[in-house]
């Protein structure tokens, strides 16, 4: 139980159901003196809602973030920051049918088994709307990273079989297309693919990539709370993620030591790596090069195609799930991946402050 | 800091360096009344040491587990179980050269950056010997799972490009070959591949797969402490793991909803899934089908081939790292993956006991 | 940092400032299936507000609890329960003067020192209003304890030098007087004492006692998370508490072993203790007899008498703090002590479910 | 379960039973670069063993500390420090009788109830020998505090009704008498009292006081992890402690606001308090004045006087517990109180490093 809190020193606790009164997050452990206002958070929430797109739910959510505590005169005070987003359209009546059976690929069955019953309205706690709290906290974490001269870039790397082409990589393109892909051509191809899926009531999986620049060396705690281990948990905790990679990830398993090891060399008086297969981490500690992460998402389980399943009377049935469905969740998930990565990094930044006696002396003597 | 403890209710804390006096683990939160003796743990430690093999370090480690507390008259008492393994051959003198530079692919550089200096003897805390504590704890966790009618099967799934063939899958074969592969033919092919690498002083990556049968529904805590999230952290915390998958994992990202969703159906009076793409988890909670995990390992960074690096005086140098090197770490890691999976599952089994008021009533009324 | 979360398996996180928009709490880890509605919580919040009394702040707070998540169809769902209380009258303008200096006995100085500045409106996070979140969570914890046949009784034991007389103890009297004392005569005497203090602009300390009946044996985790240790933290975390006792507490230090040891004897087929000096705990584990706790509160630091202090320009000044002040905080704190005790007990009840393999077998086999 | 770990960022895990093979502690989160050797720890262990005294157990324990990990070339490395103390004389045979009944005032009954059985040899995990791990960790914590210019003084304040006289307070006297009292006259009086008790096979309680000087402002995390709350847990977790006080503690409850508030004033350019009733904490945060703590111990439950109890066959019996018994535990507990206080302070020192953005900038920019 009690799995809604993430982090050790920078600690977030999310709450709320898809069709309850509201959703929110409490961020505890944010240092005092960070400039913060509601629009910082709103910008992130809006990235969850690529409204201009045919490929993601058209429901005009208009999620509006409100800060209820922890900020005074435009600055964080060091006390818990509570952010709330009220749910606007709660069509509980739409969900009466869904209450009666288990949607394939959803958490209906497992919530019933674990808790004895479930809040079936819109998926309850297992809805994608649960990520609102993560993203609100992520906005704060990214702000803090920026203040320490780090930045984080996230985008859709693939949708189905359509991958971005590294030669076409264009950072500016990310916000130009509804799929948040940094490659115009790939974005068009993916749109065509999604159009076809949508026509047949089907959906697609995809991959989000996240790159952090400016990370200091030393983040990550041997042995269990390695940088990559904490990030793996952070990303795998996002609904629909089925695989997580750091650096060259799965490719490392088919590589050889001589090809995979990143040689060290000097860049003026600074030690750097000549390549970055490791993706910015060695021995679970940041090595000063770019951190590279990938999260692989399964296709949206909500499809309108007919499916076989079982109802609560243990009868085998065939269902057509109604409602508008995203043919892909990945573009909306880009900001969620970024948020979880940033939250994890802030936590590890704080945890690392005590790695050396010298740091304590800097602060206390 | 303080990253050497894993788990919430079943909590393990490991300690020890490769060439220190000893390594060990404290297991806190193990229920009272589990039969346990030192040979239960020794069996697991011995699986770390496939001594009969050419492909893993020949150093006769002879690690011997000793239980120092928490067991009385052959049963766990509910108090912390301390297990110690003394280091036998500590050739500190062998490591004087390594102290002077940063081995590519190793944690030498990042430990120095984080802590200001490092215990350079055999990699110190970042050595593979650190897993001794994990495996000792894993032996206890597996014993507990077995007592609750679950079992766990782990093996090498691939080495370099050599994959096991599902059609040749033979559980009995796992302990017949030095690579712990459940496919005789693949094992031979992989041995040939490793022979070639060894001849050139190179090494290979590979993949470990782990399957858990008999898992009850309901394990895993929404939203951050999902079953898959906790497992991802557990596996990614193992040195050299660069990617983690659950179920069809990375394949899910190129699939469609209609192909990827597992339909529910009835098996007599029991709800089951007609397929298992999800790998035993839905919404981060176990769904009653087999749990399927994969951990991808990078090639052993210790190779005898010449490599470019930097020394502690910031000079670019070319090094040949001496000593016997494993051309592959994967077979030795099989039991480590199994241990981390088992530890995670026991923790989540315990955490799930309070999911319903009914369970509390069963115990307290 | 991050000190606003309490509990391991039953985990509460409070947030909010005295004069911010709202205050609240997130309860994570509450088992599914507990009947719960807003009025359950409102009853507890109302106990914080003995409005009929001259001895506690007259401000008509009218705190109204709203449940935002975690409850569906009148039952807890197992997901986080978010409770919010909006602040109604926020007279920020009243606090401009207080912002300029450090009130003696308050946290003004230490918040400034820790965070660099503070939300000075009404004490911000260090206000007594912070306990709203504790009490809302306490209402849920007490409900859960009741469902498992335990009950908890709390009252004012002393105000200043006025103690209740054990011979006059009358449980029914507690809610008959504004001081929540179970002794009519003592209550009257204490009222007289408070009248005198109020006339001179002064205040009084006092003691709250809490008794839990029906507690099963076995709660509390050796060695650091002993029942009494967790309760000591819970109670000492309440603002203004300066001492905590279990059982005969401070008296034990002047006693002898032969007088202090509680002999065991049989009550039919049940082991009981012939006395209860230990206050219901032996070796940090509940022993089946009544749990007895006492929290000692310092006098309300807000007094209208003139006081010496220092302002933010480091000048020594003499101040008269304006506003209505409680001459005593203790009666309002009774429900806070009860809440913290109940929250701690629920957490330990849940943690204890895995003390024996047999319990796991009851649930999983 | 899992109650053997203490601390958030500076985390200690103890293990071991009175008559098992060994006892020990793992300290995780100690910053790298602290000078440390085994004799630092041995000095603290020796303070547990006032062997020269008639008033504490004569068993020549000769506990010898060995550091097994986490220290290299005389400095902590940042990795877990494992300290072990082997048990020398294990007279298991002496305890066969005790296994058959429940000693009054001991944890025999509650351990049996919680776990189903117990390691009855010398009290197992509930023995006073469990504090060895705390004291070994405490030695490291005190060393770290000293390096940051703080110091900690602990002594026996009272034994039975015999209190030290503030006018006779003499710091040098503490180690001159076997009771660790800073008042020669009181020490003599207490010795006489203990002689009488010993003659009748009885025992006494007492009080330990601990004062920390040089503590910076800002330690302690609102609201649950207040400085005083964490210390209360730390001290109450020591076996036999029944009450904990901070500052004027229990006296505060009978005081008035005007008498109890500590006025602020200037000492040159530094804000100080004119008195220290608060004992060094305001709002749960250190206020820069001396931290003052008191722990009240019940009398040693092991007495040789005849006592009534119950055996494991549920028969009422009268027992005379054999063996040498301490007529008082308090002198041996002085170093335990000091250790737990120091461990708590180091943890809060580390947690406080991130209270302000400025501190993060000091370290990372």
Explain what you see.
The structure is a homotetramer of 365-residue chains. By secondary structure, chain A is α+β, with helices and mostly antiparallel strands. Chain A has a single domain (5-364), classed as Chorismate synthase AroC (Chorismate synthase, AroC fold), CATH 3.60.150.10. Helix content of chain A is 26%, strand content 22%. The first copy, chain A, has 8 helices and 18 strands. Chain A has helices spanning 38-47, 108-115, 131-147, 184-199, 227-236, 257-260, 330-352, 357-364, and strands at residues 5-6, 11-16, 22-28, 65-67, 71-72, 75-76, 81-86, 151-159, 162-163, 206-213, 241-246, 264-267, 270-273, 281-282, 285-286, 291-297, 307-310, 316-319. In chain A, the strands form 6 sheets. A 5-stranded antiparallel sheet of chain A has the order 1-2-3-7-4. In chain A, α1 (38-47) crosses α3 (131-147), α3 packs across α7 (330-352) and α5 (227-236) runs antiparallel to α7 (330-352). In chain A, 67% of the residues are buried. At the A-B interface, β1, α2, α5, β11 and α6 of A face β1, α2, α5, β11 and α6 of B.
